[in-house]
Amino acid sequence: MTGRDSVLWLLAMCSLGTAAWRGNTQPKLITLLGSDNNVHRFTGNDTHPDHFRLIVQDEQNLLVGGRNLVHNLTLADLTEIQKLAWVSPDNDRTMCSMKGRDFEQCQNYIRVLTKISTGRFLICGTNAYKPVCREYASQPSGYLMEREWSGRGSCPYGPNVNSTAVFVDGELYSGTYADFAGFDPLIFREPLRTAQFDSNTFNHPIDFVNSFAHGDYVYFFFREGAVECTNCGNTIYSRVARVCKSDKESTSNVIEGRYGAESAEIVYAVFNALNNGSAVCAFRLQDISKAFDGPFAGATEKVPDPRPGKCVNDSRAMPSVTRNFIQKHPRMEQSVDSFFGRPIVTQVTSNYRFTQIAVDPQVKTPGGKAYDVLFIGTDNGKVIKAVNAESADNPKKVNTVVIEEIQVFPPAVAITSLKIVRHESLTKPRLIVVSNSEIQSIKLHRCDSNILVNNSCSGCVGLQDPHCAWDKQAQKCVTKNSATRWNGENSFYQSIATGLHGSCPI
Ligand SMILES: *[C@@H]1O[C@H](CO)[C@@H](O)[C@H](O)[C@H]1NC(C)=O
Ligand SMILES: *[C@@H]1O[C@H](CO)[C@@H](O)[C@H](O)[C@H]1NC(C)=O
Ligand SMILES: *[C@@H]1O[C@H](CO)[C@@H](O)[C@H](O)[C@H]1NC(C)=O
Ligand SMILES: *[C@@H]1O[C@H](CO)[C@@H](O)[C@H](O)[C@H]1NC(C)=O
Ligand SMILES: *[C@@H]1O[C@H](CO)[C@@H](O)[C@H](O)[C@H]1NC(C)=O
Ligand SMILES: *[C@@H]1O[C@H](CO)[C@@H](O)[C@H](O)[C@H]1NC(C)=O
Question: Signal peptide position in this chain (predicted)?
Answer without folding.
Answer: 1-20
